[in-house]
Amino acid sequence: MDALGDPTRRAIFERLANGARAVGELAAELPVTRPAVSQHLRVLKEAGLVTDHQVGTRRYYQLDPAGVGAVRAYFDRFWEHALAAFADAVHATGDE
Amino acid sequence: MSRESSIVVRRSVTVTASPQRAFDVFTSAIDTWWPRSHHIGEREQFTAVVEPRVGGRWFERGDDGSECAWGHVRVWDPPARVVLTWEIGADWKANPEVVSEVEVRFVAEGDGRTRVDLEHRGIEVYGEQAEQMRETFEGPGAWQGLLDLFAERAAAG
User: Fold this and answer.
1) What is the 8-class DSSP label of residue A17?
2) Which domain holds residue A53?
3) What angle do the packed helices A68-93 and B125-136 form, to 10 degrees?
4) Nearest chain A residue to B129, by CA
5) Same domain, A48 and A72
6) Do A70 and B157 touch (CB under 8 A)?
7) Position B107 pLDDT exceeds 90
8) Which of residues 31-90 of A touch B (CB under 8 A)?
9) Residue B75's CB: how many other CB atoms inside 10 A?
10) pLDDT at site B139
11) Architecture of B9-123 per CATH?
């Protein structure tokens, strides 16, 4: 199973990287039907890339918190830290 | 690398220096600032190196002379831009199939300042890596195992 081999699934995956979304929200943004979105989400869920939860009548999907969202968050924190260290190095030794 | 579906991190910092100096510190002098906790080699004492050319390696050299590659230079365009690949899997081992890209731009802002814009893109490759591992090892253990390793190293850093 190549969960990210389909361009629509990749598009759904990318949107979820920015936060949890309801199925209807995703369907409204994509040029595919709502049942098609649900099917893609099932594939992503089976691949362990997304999880879902119910809020009232709506089902929300998000990147598996133990998954690639965590990797992204890690790199975000890492680069913030690394760039601060870089700036300190520029200022510590600069003579310009 | 598909831009439409890329998972991206963007961070920026402004320094009081020329773009050339900022570029040099980022690349030639990377060892003066690279966080010591972030490396993949066995040796805790290491030197971080960026070879100053397209195709050059980005790597650590341990105090025993051993070298572990982190990636390569894709674009070398001083003082404006450098693009490096990050070829390290979520298990913190070098993996030429897990490639994300780090683009750094050095933009003069006047008053002797330079804004350094960093974009790390292609992070979705980690999702693909985990998926491949799930196919190799059955069950949820592979993904969780990979991420546990990653989380452990991330917490240590």
Assistant:
1) T
2) 1-64
3) 140
4) A68
5) no
6) no
7) yes
8) 47-49, 64, 66-68, 70-72, 74-76, 78-90
9) 13
10) 47
11) 2-Layer Sandwich (3.30)
